[in-house]
Amino acid sequence: MLQEKHIEEATTYYMEHASKKVALKFLQDYKKAVADILKVRYFQVFYLNFRGRMLTKFPYIVFYTLDDEQELIIIKAVFHTAQTPQKYPHK
User: Fold this and answer.
1) Which helix (H) or strand (E) holds 84?
2) CA-CA distance, 63 to 54, in Å (whole number)?
3) Is residue 79 pLDDT above 80, yes or no?
4) Three-state SS across 17-76?
5) What is residue 48's predicted lDDT score, i.e. its pLDDT?
6) Residues near 86 by Cβ (< 8 Å), separated by ≥ 6?
7) Which end of the chain lies in a sparser environment, N or C, as judged by fewer CB atoms within 10 Å?
8) pLDDT number for residue 81
9) Which run of H or of E encompasses 3?
């Protein structure tokens, strides 16, 4: 899945350019954002039907959609905020 690739790329980047400790803090921040999404569900809509939750300490947004019928939260992407919005997920 795309979001798993994004998490892996970010973790690898932090391990190579910072430290293992920073990479682990990134993962913790990501997990907290996901936990918040599971609790609140209705964070800001960024565009179309994509909602987003910013990480607290790292410049990333977790993009997700809601399937209210099946009560699902579907994480679509973990997006670095320095990237152009044209790279936002489209599906």
Assistant:
1) none
2) 9
3) yes
4) HCCHHHHHHHHHHHHHHHHHHHHHCCCCEEECCEEEEECCCCCEEEEEEEECCCCEEEEE
5) 84
6) none
7) C
8) 86
9) helix 2-17
CA distances from 32 to 2, 35, 56, 82, 91 (A): 19, 5, 9, 21, 24
Model pLDDT for residues 14-67, shown as the tens digit of each residue: 999 999 999 999 999 999 999 999 999 899 998 888 999 999 999 999 999 999
Q: Which residue has the tokens 């599906």?
A: 91
> Do the Cβ atoms of 89 and 63 come closer than 8 Å?
yes
CA atoms within 13 A on the CB side of 59: 5
From the CB of residue 68, how many other CB atoms can be counted at a distance below 10 Å?
A: 7
